[in-house]
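for the writeup, i need someone to sanity check this before i put it in the appendix. the sequnce is what the collaborator sent (i think, or maybe the updated version? ugh). structure was predicted straight from it, no edits. if anything looks off just tell me and ill rerun, i have time this weekend
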Amino acid sequence: MAERKVAWKARKDNSLIGSDITRIDGVEKASGSAKYAADINTPGTLFGRLLTFKGGAGVVKSLDTSDAEKTPGVRAVHVFNGVGKEVRWDGTIVAAVAADTAEQAEDGVRAIKVTYEAKPHWVDEEDLAGATKSMRTKPLGDNQKGDVAAALKAAKYVHKGYYGIATISHMCLEPHGSHCEWDGEDKLNVHLSTQNVSGTGGQFAGPLGLEASNVSITCNYIGGGFGSKFAADQWGLACAELAKKAGKPVRLMLDRATELKIAGTRPSGFAEVTIAADAEGNITVWDSHHWGTSGIAGSTIALSQLPYCFDGIPNRNRKATGISTNTGPNRAWRAPPHPQLCAVTDTVIDDLAAKMGADSYDIFMKNLDKTPKPDVYAEEMKIGAKLIDWKAQWHAHGKGGGNGAVKRGLGMALHRWGGRAGATTCTVKVHPDGAVETFLGSQDLGTGTRTVIAITLAETFGLQVADVKVNLGNNSYPKANPSGGSITVGGVTGPHRRAGLEALWKIYDLVAAKYKVAADSLTAQGGKILSAGKAVCTWKQACSLLGPMALEIQGAGPKNDGLTDQGVGGVQMADVSVDIETGIVRINKLVAVQDCGLIIDELTARSQVYGGLIMGIAYALSEERVMDNKTGRFINADLENYKLPRIGDIGELVVHMYQPDSEYERGVVGLGEPPVISTGAAISNAVANATGVRVPVQPLTPQRVLEALKGGQA
């Protein structure tokens, strides 16, 4: 018998892998039948509401919940921060109330009597001098390579500039929260909005004094996570405590303001940068000091990753300073901290090209030898340039045409990401009647995890996607990694391909014995088992040979067998129009060229890139946490003033998945995060190209655009 190897089929043989396949859970979501945590409403469910601190910093001076406990309909009250406890940022949770109706819960919250002793606060993340004076800074290190001073003297071109990107807050459509229901005294059932189905049970169990096996976590659907939903969180534990006190199930979801204030932010980054190049345009120097905030902790974007992607610049000085602010803590936000790093690095390179009088495309291309994927970037840049007609439309910064006050420009940027496979286990069952199902404790964030699993098994067994039932979203299933770091698609497809092949080989052996054919001649295709291209039996007939019990195979990964890989790159190019009288930036066209190894479902892959581009437009043009220095309040923590793009703000999006044979042969690599990284830098560069001035800090709001134009910051 020929040696059996775990592998994907050759590209020419695939009927499902890499095609456009719609989501298997699309109808449930579109019809409203999909149940999220906020939809769980078992008999007797109470409504949870929160009392939060409104201010910059303080200490709880007095707290009286007695009136709340007497409020009609209130069944339980829980205190987070009692007398003497510090409250260090706007939105800090003080207490929670559970009641029969939402209105009664809100009445209970209003009945709580609390006073605070105000403490000094600091919320300005950009004002390094002020933060230093207020003793709110801490050094985060510095390092150097080569001889910057000597290289600057030898350089033909030197550019100095100031760049930044503001803090943004997580803005999941479904806020954080859970529905908790006790089964007796020691068993807890939690419907949780989470990216970490397998890992959050223990986070409930420990603080609540339970065995981890007595906590059931269910998450069939989630309305966004993006790095913010890995934990049970204090409000999740409070939901369980309220349910225990009340003797009834409780649903507690964060309201939108609290969601924005405390559910996680992406840290800011501001930098003073000097960059230099020789006469041929080779970048020789990077010298930077950057600062920003992640909240009280005072960290900022990683020191070692600047300049982003261009690690091969020979002479580098880098210094970082953290600013401690009285603001909600940071959490991972889609590709941490790559968007900030790219926003600083690729805008600097674009300004250097402008100073040289060169096309920025040519300068990026000239310096690809300093990046981790020069050949891939070069091909992606050529594709992107053709799709956006770069050579015909590009002009020197501020030298383009336009209709009156509206100026048009092009910009580009590039990015990288890891995307390795996460650790996942699964159980694949093939039933005697031919039914196929799988079980794993993963989650589908809306990225198509169910669908790619079904495609993987359907392709392996020669079936249709509809023939595979995918069971996930519960921690009673085999353990799977949290969905973060773009590790899920490789994490789930590798184990399923391995388990599927092992099951198929066992079925082949049974078919070979029954029908007197060679096992190594068999293939599965179109619901049939074939030998040398001729039908031997149907899939159902083959599975009937299993006997009365289902065949169960365990799959695990990652393994070094070629099914998965890591390391991707991408290039994005933006065509924008800028009204220099109003400061409004419009996206005309945004092009993304992206590699990601073997693509399981190209429709899903493109959707990931579209989503990344839209999020990138958001933080590039409008999305920003605005803090009031006087009061310490987060003043735009609502859906009206926390500005996200509408349909009319998006423009034309063009996605090209870079898929030569060399990519296919790498195996599966994660894609979720890379598309959001370089969008902001590409748009910023396009605005600079249109206007001739750099708007130094993102988002590029009309106010910032007009200020830059007034100041003439070149």
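The chain is about 30% helix and 25% strand. Residues 488-515 form the longest helix (28 residues).
thx in advance!!
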